[in-house]
Amino acid sequence: MNSFTVTNTPQPVVTLRAVARRAGLSLATVSYALRAHPKITPATRELVAAAAIELGYRPNSRVAGLMAHIRSARVRPRAERIAFVWVHTSRRVAAENPYLRAVFKGAVARAERLGFALEEFWTDDAGMKEPRLQEIIVARGITGVLLSPVLTSETSLALDWDWSGLAAVVIGNVTWTPELHHVGHHHFFAMRTVLLELVKLGYRRPAAVVDAVIDERAKHAWTGAFFANHPEPERARPLLHVHDGRRPRDLAAWLRGSGADALIVSAVAQLSAPGVRAFCRQKRLQVATLRWSAALPANIAGIDQCDELLGAQAVELLIAQLHHNERGPPRHPGMMLFPGQWVAPTVPACAHVAALK
């Protein structure tokens, strides 16, 4: 029988000081360069990166995490900045829309907690050209970019930018060219949760009306989840209405012919279509929304999308790229999705379960 011996020879640890000696720079300069600090020139960053690669330097992730925590606890008058770019969004809409403000609030809070600061930019400012906006951001020493959610009807987006020197994260599900990392809402899981919760309460024929643009951005997650999780899947197709915003009167006609015992809406504004709210009251349809807020009446259940969490996690993902000196479009773009939470203040059990069976 042949035998062999496996010898685990420990590899020498390459320290930051060794990288500094190889690059011919101070320890502080190398530390800043590996964290892509804006005060370090691109040429110096490249010199340090080359020395680190040559020596096989690998940062200790636990030490890096501890140092990041220590730095975040310090009062720093000039925190490293992250660009928050409002894409195809006016200053007025950015300031007034509750969803956008919640996302931004979450991003600001998490950035400050981690020792960074957000600086806002707008692609749609008067006279602003996309390449010029990038020049401004780069000139300010910013290498990390958060791209805002968009409220327009676009399902795919692109900016005329050179992404090679930037780390970026998209907030939302819209497709980007080139594709970047995303943080967004888990629309499939949200629809699934609403259906399962309604079934628990005895509802057997829930209908749903969903926004066509958002469903397409989410790669038809709402429609897919509706058909996959409906309590009567063989009869589910006529119970789903994908609404493009045109012909709002069609919603009431569809709902009257659906035989539904509950109605799921992707936004409560759809209840304002002519005849819809009155029909729900007349038939005592239980209403649930895929975008719930505390401002809604207590009898409307739904999914709280936890918008502030999206902004916070986008910052986390971006800072991770900055710490690892990752720039440019990722080879394997990731998508971090959050399902939100089911909220049901005063949802009654279905009173017509026996009749429906």
Describe the protein's architecture and organization:
The protein has 357 residues and is of the alpha/beta class. It has 3 domains: 16-58, 434 Repressor (Amino-terminal Domain) (Orthogonal Bundle), CATH 1.10.260.40; 80-185 and 308-339, Rossmann fold (3-Layer(aba) Sandwich); 187-305 and 342-356, Rossmann fold (3-Layer(aba) Sandwich), CATH 3.40.50.2300. It is built from 14 helices and 14 strands. It has a 6-stranded parallel beta sheet, covered by helices on one side. A 6-stranded mixed beta sheet has the order 9-8-10-11-12-14, with helices on both faces. α12 links the parallel β10 (262-265) and β11 (286-289). α1 packs across α3, α6 (98-113) packs across α13 (307-323) and α8 runs parallel beside α10 (221-229). It is elongated, with a radius of gyration of 26 Å. The termini are far apart.
